[in-house]
DNA sequence: TGATCGGTTGAAAAG
DNA sequence: CCTTTTCAACCGATC
């Protein structure tokens, strides 16, 4: 450091890097030898209100923050994670001024919103004379670099990713850097607290995408810029108006947990790590699951992806020199991480339109039901979508709630909701079922449900996989449909997975566990569950028994219809950035009719039964009423076709 | 240019 | 019960 310059006062901005180990940006910050070091997290209203986040992921995030804060505290009793409750776009000038910052350091983030946010903040820093340092660290390789080595184009196959990263350090990610052994002090308590005196911008809660999860209409998470006690505390679920009992997932956040999980796999399950092949892991395995469950830690950065890669790679190399079996790219663990790189780089190349069909040049246009509405100014999806077909809306609701009448699908959707995680192939099953292999509903609807419920939700991977499964991009073999019966049976012939997550069926013979509607009525009575209705009726009127819904359609018939429609759409061959998609004239091309033109606002839609409040509830009530009205022979819903 | 082949992870029937 | 073949047939890279 030049002797003349004042000792740096460094603000370190944590975002999706909630860890101390292998944090290149943190290392860069500390190598400035700051006299003052303030690690912060900005509790961004964008995430609080404009991103779908269910109770399980809220809890996971808070646990990551708690763990990180404790780790800082162990290194320096004056330290912790300082949480600031305001939008970064408005709060940074106040932080710079109030704390006299000289540097702002953070890890780069290539998400659509994040890029825009960071550009704004960098501009504000420049205006305040604060030096900004940004380091890549969220992915194995800097996604912008990967794109550059892919001719500036989105990465569309693993082969392209391999070729691109070969040109960056021969395809070997940087070695992980160690966690710091000490961190400097923050400012004194008085000086830190001085921030509470500044004007505080409280965000508008009107467009709260997560209203359905809150116990109160107006939460108080933004009441004070430094939290309720003015001490920059990490929010609690109660402060977010989220009932803690709604966070039912067994999966917990935090760097300590993540590192311990990785260590355990490597030490106690070397065979599992070394011979891992994703397609051979069971989507029906639960408690414990068949894969590592490290994905949510990669999302929040409580585990470094480079540490994961190198630790696994070291194991693979040791095994190879010992002539023990190993698995290969792309099905092995490093290969799985390459798919993550692929989706990140594709997103980095395309920006915000990556996450939607309209305007997205890699997305094949398919005239699915329940198309999104778009903001006229930005062209980006808004929370509203158009119900062109009442039947499709009912199917979508039943899919989301796990009452389709197909036990394999329902078990997966219920596991997703309660645990915040389902196996990758389970995601394939339910995604294929909702889109091209069943309901013919837009993949954006499904991606939104995953966004809400997954603890490991990562926009790049989630959207990428939804496009993959719906044959929108990356994958095109639409005649390969996952059967909701055969696929589950293949992995779990006894139906243990279904019995656990759909306990209504726990006494059913394995012969009928995936097709309970085929069981004779006498057996249904013996097994204490009647297959009848749409899942909204708890007790069968006639027998008083628990019910499980009849299948909401004839799957084989739907598969045929969907494949024929996919074939037609592929024949028309419109991409998301085609003029006809942009101006809406695709409707004429496909003879797409909007029968009632209703627009649904997803915001306050409750999914747990009886409707909730406001307009959302009314709509649902009507749909549900219609359904149970003709449940006498519910399978007949499938007869409706175009 | 047209043919060939591969594509992380299919399903159902036949052997 | 296991493996192999057929099903119906897509895109994009490659030669």
From TrEMBL:
<dbReference type="InterPro" id="IPR006050">
    <property type="entry name" value="DNA_photolyase_N"/>
</dbReference>
<dbReference type="GO" id="GO:0043153">
    <property type="term" value="P:entrainment of circadian clock by photoperiod"/>
</dbReference>
<feature type="site" description="Electron transfer via tryptophanyl radical">
    <location>
        <position position="368"/>
    </location>
</feature>
<feature type="compositionally biased region" description="Basic and acidic residues">
    <location>
        <begin position="600"/>
        <end position="609"/>
    </location>
</feature>
<comment type="similarity">
    <text>Belongs to the DNA photolyase class-1 family.</text>
</comment>
<dbReference type="Pfam" id="PF03441">
    <property type="entry name" value="FAD_binding_7"/>
</dbReference>
<dbReference type="InterPro" id="IPR036155">
    <property type="entry name" value="Crypto/Photolyase_N_sf"/>
</dbReference>
<dbReference type="InterPro" id="IPR005101">
    <property type="entry name" value="Cryptochr/Photolyase_FAD-bd"/>
</dbReference>
<feature type="binding site">
    <location>
        <begin position="291"/>
        <end position="295"/>
    </location>
    <ligand>
        <name>FAD</name>
    </ligand>
</feature>
<feature type="region of interest" description="Disordered">
    <location>
        <begin position="600"/>
        <end position="642"/>
    </location>
</feature>
<dbReference type="GO" id="GO:0003904">
    <property type="term" value="F:deoxyribodipyrimidine photo-lyase activity"/>
</dbReference>
<protein>
    <recommendedName>
        <fullName>Photolyase/cryptochrome alpha/beta domain-containing protein</fullName>
    </recommendedName>
</protein>
<feature type="binding site">
    <location>
        <begin position="336"/>
        <end position="344"/>
    </location>
    <ligand>
        <name>FAD</name>
    </ligand>
</feature>
<feature type="compositionally biased region" description="Basic and acidic residues">
    <location>
        <begin position="616"/>
        <end position="625"/>
    </location>
</feature>
<dbReference type="GO" id="GO:0005737">
    <property type="term" value="C:cytoplasm"/>
</dbReference>
<dbReference type="GO" id="GO:0005634">
    <property type="term" value="C:nucleus"/>
</dbReference>
<dbReference type="Pfam" id="PF00875">
    <property type="entry name" value="DNA_photolyase"/>
</dbReference>
<feature type="site" description="Electron transfer via tryptophanyl radical">
    <location>
        <position position="443"/>
    </location>
</feature>
<dbReference type="InterPro" id="IPR002081">
    <property type="entry name" value="Cryptochrome/DNA_photolyase_1"/>
</dbReference>
<feature type="domain" description="Photolyase/cryptochrome alpha/beta">
    <location>
        <begin position="8"/>
        <end position="140"/>
    </location>
</feature>
<dbReference type="GO" id="GO:0032922">
    <property type="term" value="P:circadian regulation of gene expression"/>
</dbReference>
<dbReference type="InterPro" id="IPR014729">
    <property type="entry name" value="Rossmann-like_a/b/a_fold"/>
</dbReference>
<keyword id="KW-0285">Flavoprotein</keyword>
<dbReference type="GO" id="GO:0071949">
    <property type="term" value="F:FAD binding"/>
</dbReference>
<dbReference type="InterPro" id="IPR036134">
    <property type="entry name" value="Crypto/Photolyase_FAD-like_sf"/>
</dbReference>
<dbReference type="GO" id="GO:0003677">
    <property type="term" value="F:DNA binding"/>
</dbReference>
<keyword id="KW-0274">FAD</keyword>
<feature type="site" description="Electron transfer via tryptophanyl radical">
    <location>
        <position position="466"/>
    </location>
</feature>
């Amino acid at each position: 450091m030049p002797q003349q310059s004042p000792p740096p006062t460094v603000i370190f901005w944590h975002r999706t890097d909630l860890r101390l180990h292998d944090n290149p940006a943190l290392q860069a910050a500390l190598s400035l030898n700051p006299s003052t070091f303030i690690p912060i997290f900005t509790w961004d209203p964008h995430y609080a209100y404009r991103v779908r986040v269910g109770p399980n992921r809220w809890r996971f995030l808070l646990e990551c923050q708690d763990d990180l804060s404790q780790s800082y505290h162990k290194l320096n009793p004056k330290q912790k994670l300082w949480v600031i409750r305001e939008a970064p776009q408005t709060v940074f000038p106040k932080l710079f001024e109030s704390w006299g910052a000289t540097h702002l350091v953070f890890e780069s983030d290539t998400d659509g919103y994040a890029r825009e946010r960071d550009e704004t903040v960098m501009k504000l820093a420049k205006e305040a004379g604060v030096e900004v340092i940004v380091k890549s660290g969220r992915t194995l390789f800097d996604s912008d670099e990967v794109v550059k080595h892919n001719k500036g184009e989105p990465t569309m196959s693993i082969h392209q990713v391999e070729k691109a990263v070969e040109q960056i350090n021969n395809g070997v990610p940087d070695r992980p850097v160690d966690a710091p052994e000490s961190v400097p002090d923050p400012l004194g308590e008085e000086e830190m607290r001085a921030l509470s005196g500044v004007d505080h911008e409280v965000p508008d809660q009107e467009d709260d995408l997560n209203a359905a999860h809150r116990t109160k209409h107006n939460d108080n998470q933004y009441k004070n810029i430094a939290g309720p006690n003015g001490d920059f505390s990490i929010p609690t679920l109660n402060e977010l108006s989220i009932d803690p009992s709604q966070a039912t997932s067994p999966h917990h956040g935090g760097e300590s947990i993540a590192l311990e999980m990785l260590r355990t796999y490597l030490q106690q399950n070397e065979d599992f790590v070394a011979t891992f092949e994703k397609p051979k892991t069971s989507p029906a395995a639960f408690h414990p699951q068949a894969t590592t469950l490290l994905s949510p830690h990669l999302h929040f950065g409580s585990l470094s992806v480079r540490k994961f890669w190198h630790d696994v790679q070291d194991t693979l190399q040791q095994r190879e020199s010992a002539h023990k079996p190993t698995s290969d790219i792309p099905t092995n663990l490093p290969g799985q991480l390459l798919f993550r790189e692929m989706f990140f780089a594709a997103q980095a190349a395309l920006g915000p339109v990556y996450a939607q069909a309209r305007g997205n040049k890699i997305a094949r246009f398919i005239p699915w039901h329940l198309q999104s509405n778009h903001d006229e100014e930005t062209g980006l999806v808004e929370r509203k979508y158009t119900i062109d077909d009442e039947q499709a809306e009912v199917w979508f609701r039943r899919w989301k709630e796990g009452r389709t009448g197909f036990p394999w699908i329902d078990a997966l959707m219920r596991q997703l909701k309660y645990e915040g995680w389902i196996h990758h192939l389970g995601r394939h099953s339910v995604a294929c079922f909702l889109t091209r292999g069943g309901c013919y509903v837009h993949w954006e609807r499904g991606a939104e449900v995953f966004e809400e419920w997954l603890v490991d939700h990562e926009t790049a991977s989630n959207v990428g996989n939804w496009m993959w499964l719906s044959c929108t991009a990356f994958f095109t073999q639409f005649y390969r449909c996952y059967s909701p019966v055969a696929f589950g049976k293949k992995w779990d012939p006894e139906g243990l997975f279904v019995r656990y997550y759909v306990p209504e069926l726990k006494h059913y013979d394995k012969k009928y566990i995936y097709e309970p509607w085929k069981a004779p009525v006498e057996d249904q009575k013996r097994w204490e569950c009647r297959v009848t209705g749409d899942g909204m009726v708890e007790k069968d009127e006639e027998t008083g028994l628990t019910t499980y819904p009849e299948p909401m359609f004839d799957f084989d018939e739907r598969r045929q219809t969907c494949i024929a429609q996919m074939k037609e759409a592929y024949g028309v061959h419109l991409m998301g950035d085609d003029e006809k998609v942009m101006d809406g004239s695709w409707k004429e091309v496909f003879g797409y009719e909007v029968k009632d033109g209703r627009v649904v606002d997803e915001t306050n839609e409750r999914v747990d039964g009886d409707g909730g409040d406001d307009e959302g509830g009314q709509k649902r009530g009507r749909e549900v009423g219609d359904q149970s009205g003709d449940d006498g022979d519910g399978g007949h819903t499938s007869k409706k076709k175009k």
